[in-house]
Amino acid sequence: MEVIGKVIGYPSAFIFGYDLGTRLSGGTGNNSMLIAGGIGTAIGLIFGIAAESNYKNSVRLYNSGLKEQVSQLSFGLTESGGIGFMYRL
User: Which of 24, 55, 69, 80 is 20 to 30 A off residue 16, Cα-Cα?
Assistant: First the structure.
């Protein structure tokens, strides 16, 4: 989705900006270029926002599957029968 958004959005934004700049500098612009550029830019933005949302959902889904590990440091009898520090995850 991100690639599609960039492929559609960047050229459309250039076309939109070029036509708008031509109009602002006193030239005559092309109405169909301005409309197509604006629509393409909007579509590119929508795809970009959707891709970012998918990234965040993927990270949230991955993180929810991880179980929280609690580490513990204790002093006492070890599993091998000795005395010492034990570190457990």
Answer: 55
